[in-house]
Every structure is written in C-alpha cells, then in structure tokens.
C-alpha cells in the first residue's frame, strides 16, 4: 500500500492479516536535478536511477518510514530531475554502464529545487566498502590504497616506479565509507591505513569486469597487540643474550620482511613491535648468528 498525493511521498507498506492498522507517513517532497556529462563519443543516457534511504542513526538504524527506495525521475531538455522526500537522505545515483555516484547526508527543504550541476560519468570498475575503527579513532582519518599485485622484482627501480604510479588512493568519509573509481581489471592488494593504528590489508582482490565491487565485510582496524617472547634458557651456550627477529609475510608471496629485531634481556625476555592481529614469524639466534628456533 502506498499513498499518492501531489507534493508528498510515502514509503510502501506491506499489508498483513491482523488487527494492527496500516501507518503511512506523508513527507513533503523536493526536486533534485542535474545534467549528465559523458565521455567523448558516448550518447547521453536516457535512464537515471536514484536510490535513497534515510540517514542511519548512531546505532545504524534507518527510519522505517524512509527505507531504501527508488525516486521517481524524469528526463528534461538539459538533463534529468527526480522527486524525493525532503528529509535527511543518503543517495546513490546510477546510470547503467557507468560508475555510480554517492551523496551522503543530503537534505532539501520542502518544494525546494536543488541543482547538482554537471554529473560527470565514468566507465570502468569501482570498489566500495566500509571501514570500522576502535572507539575514539575516527574513520575519516583512514586512507585507502589499492596496489596492483607485483608483476616484477620491486628492487628494480623501474618496476618500483611503475608500480607506484599505478597505486590508487582515497580517503574514508565521516561515515566510514570509501569508493575507488576507474579501477582497471586485474588483481590488487587493498590497504587501510590510520596514523595511530596498525594497517590492514585485504588480498587477493580480483577485479574481473567493469562493474561495482562491494566488499562483503567491513575493513576493521584494531588496536595494536604487544609481542612478548620468553626464552629458556635465558642465555646462549656462550653466556650471551639471544637475538630475536620478528618477520611479517609479504602479501601473495612466500617471502617475509623484518618488522623488528633486537637482543633479548638477560632474563630471556624480549618485547617487540606493536602489531595488528595476523600471522608472523619469530627467529631466535645466538651470539654467533646461528639459528636455534623459528616459529610462526
């Protein structure tokens, strides 16, 4: 059931058996308009889809009277216009064959006409996702990097420069959302970095078609964990302190790189670099650099 009235909008409600009355909330509408700018050689698309929903509360709940809906849109001589409720909304503007646009916390006054100006369309793939940080850490401080899987030895300066030029970067917004646009087909490593938290990597991430990839789960950054090692006996056979190395695996390879190293204390204990949760390797050697133990 849906209410139809000039200048108003209501969300459809499902009718079920029972004594409870059907509640419909009529909200005044506003008009959102824009015109499309296509890549050279592309015809102006005829179909624009505007999806919207109410802005979630701090607990992530959406007003049941503003569920995910599709606005009524019409073509105009210079572009398109859509009628939508005059309320705080999150918007997704879709044009088939192009990368979607997102608008967050959008709000217009009743009967207001809001002109977005030119909406530039891009072909290609895109990756979207959400980031979650611990309390007191802002999602908007997180940066996202998309790195192509290595196709050569990174010690080669030419390979290193080429790979650096292919890295895509974006910043997470206040809501924890990010979008990487115009991604080429191929395999990638996605990194989320915060200045005060250990980075997180997702791999392998395959882009196989010119479509939008939505990450199934949030990218969660966690507080760092301490690495502590206790060695028995506390000193090597020469009476010297043990050397400890902490290694981190390289993504998509069997190689490791050194994350931290140093001598253990005379009591055989060693405390290393704060790290994110994950897989690491510890190597213990004596004062003559002979390996005595290696553990993951």
How much β-strand is present in the residues? over 45%
Based on DSSP secondary structure assignment, what is the total number of beta strands?
Answer: 23
Q: What is the helix/strand order?
A: EEEEEEEEEEEHEEEEEEEEEEEE
**Whole-angstrom Rg:** 27 Å
Spatial gap, N to C terminus:
60 Å
Low-confidence blocks of residues: none
* Arithmetic mean pLDDT: 89
The coarse overall form would be elongated
Structural classification: mainly beta
Q: State the helical fraction.
A: under 10%
- What is the count of DSSP helices, taking H or I runs of 4+ residues? 1
Largest sheet features: 5 strands, mixed
Short description:
With 296 residues, this protein is mainly beta.
List the defining traits of the structure above.
single chain; 5-stranded mixed beta sheet; 296 residues; 1 helix; 3% helix; elongated; mainly beta
């Amino acid at each position: 059931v849906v209410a139809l009235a000039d200048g108003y909008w209501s969300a459809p409600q499902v009718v079920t058996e029972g004594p409870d009355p059907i509640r419909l909330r009529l909200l005044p509408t506003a008009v959102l308009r824009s015109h499309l700018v296509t890549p050279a050689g592309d015809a102006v698309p005829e179909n624009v889809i505007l999806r919207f929903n109410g802005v979630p509360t701090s607990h992530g709940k959406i007003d049941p009277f503003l569920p995910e809906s599709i606005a009524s849109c019409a073509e105009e001589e210079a572009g398109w216009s859509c009628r939508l409720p005059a309320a705080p909304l999150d918007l997704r503007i879709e044009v088939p064959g192009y990368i979607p646009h997102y608008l967050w916390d959008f709000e217009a006054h009743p009967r207001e006409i809001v002109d977005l100006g030119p909406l530039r369309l891009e072909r290609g793939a895109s990756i979207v996702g959400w980031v979650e940080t611990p309390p007191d850490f802002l999602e908007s401080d997180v940066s996202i990097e998309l790195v192509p899987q290595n196709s050569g030895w990174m010690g080669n300066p030419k390979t290193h420069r080429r790979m650096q030029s292919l890295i895509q970067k974006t910043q997470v917004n206040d809501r924890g959302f990010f979008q990487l646009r115009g991604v080429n087909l191929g395999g990638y490593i996605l990194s989320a970095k915060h200045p005060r938290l250990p980075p997180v990597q997702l791999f392998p991430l395959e882009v196989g078609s010119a479509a939008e990839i939505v990450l199934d789960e949030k990218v969660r950054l966690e507080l760092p964990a301490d690495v502590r090692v206790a060695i028995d006996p506390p000193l090597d056979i020469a009476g010297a302190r043990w050397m400890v190395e902490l290694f981190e695996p390289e993504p998509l390879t069997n190689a490791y790189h050194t994350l931290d190293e140093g001598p253990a204390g005379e009591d055989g204990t060693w405390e290393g670099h704060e790290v994110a949760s994950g897989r690491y390797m510890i190597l213990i050697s004596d004062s003559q650099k002979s390996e005595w133990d290696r553990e993951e």
